[in-house]
Design goal:
Length: 234
């Protein structure tokens, strides 16, 4: 695969893929980290318009994609496997701060004890973070897809979040802010594409990149030279 879809989605979701009321759409990454592109937001709106009242957006967890998807969903759920090592140090603080719900997965068998430990660690960590909502405090839960434990409880928390955010008006405010963010994201993406393909700078870009890499030019000076050439021919 090259910049293509994650075609394993339907093979992973065996039950959901057979449900006539569900639609799974593997999205082309188009070279973006995590597979979140400018069209992801439009796809969500399209699915809602088609009558799907529950839309799940999954990223592959590379960091930048989580920040992007947080600006297009109502609820941000962070899934964590009960792996070994110092999990809190391995997760960016910014991602934790965005989470409305933290879910420790694979909490079964020999992983039950590690899952409980990670749950306790994140409950303590979330208490130190600034509260983003007046009506909701992020929760930390354990689930097991194999045994089904915690799945219904997780769904109950999601519906509770939705109801509280709707009644308080915070959900409407959040969606309006997200639309503004994505307007500017599209503008920035298109402007960068226009800049890279502009006749005055496209041939200079690889040359100046090489000088920056080799230490001949500073990044700031190289950027200034490209911007000056761009403005001079615009």
């Amino acid at each position: 695969m090259f910049e293509g879809s994650l075609l394993g989605d339907k093979t992973r979701m065996t039950e959901l893929s057979r449900d006539m009321n569900a639609y799974i759409r593997p999205s082309p990454t188009r070279g973006t980290l995590g597979g979140v592109t400018r069209t992801t937001n439009e796809v969500i709106l399209l699915c809602e318009g088609a009558g799907y009242d529950i839309v799940l957006v999954e990223t592959v967890g590379v960091g930048q994609s989580e920040f992007a998807v947080a600006d297009m969903v109502d609820m941000f759920v962070l899934l964590l496997p009960p792996a070994g090592g110092d999990e809190l140090q391995g997760i960016k603080r910014g991602i934790i701060e965005m989470a409305d719900l933290v879910v420790v997965t694979k909490a079964d068998g020999d992983l039950v004890v590690p899952a409980r430990r990670i749950q306790a660690e994140y409950i303590s960590a979330l208490k130190l973070l600034r509260k983003r909502s007046k009506v909701w405090s992020p929760k930390v839960m354990r689930i097991s897809a194999r045994t089904g434990e915690g799945i219904s409880d997780m769904w109950d928390k999601m519906t509770e979040f939705r109801d509280l955010m709707l009644v308080s008006g915070e959900l409407i405010t959040k969606r309006r802010r997200q639309q503004k963010v994505w307007m500017w994201n599209v503008i920035q993406e298109n402007m960068l594409d226009h800049f890279r393909s502009h006749l005055a700078v496209r041939d200079q870009i690889p040359l100046l990149e090489e000088k920056v890499v080799s230490g001949i030019l500073s990044p700031g000076l190289a950027a200034d030279l490209l911007l000056k050439a761009f403005k001079g021919r615009s």
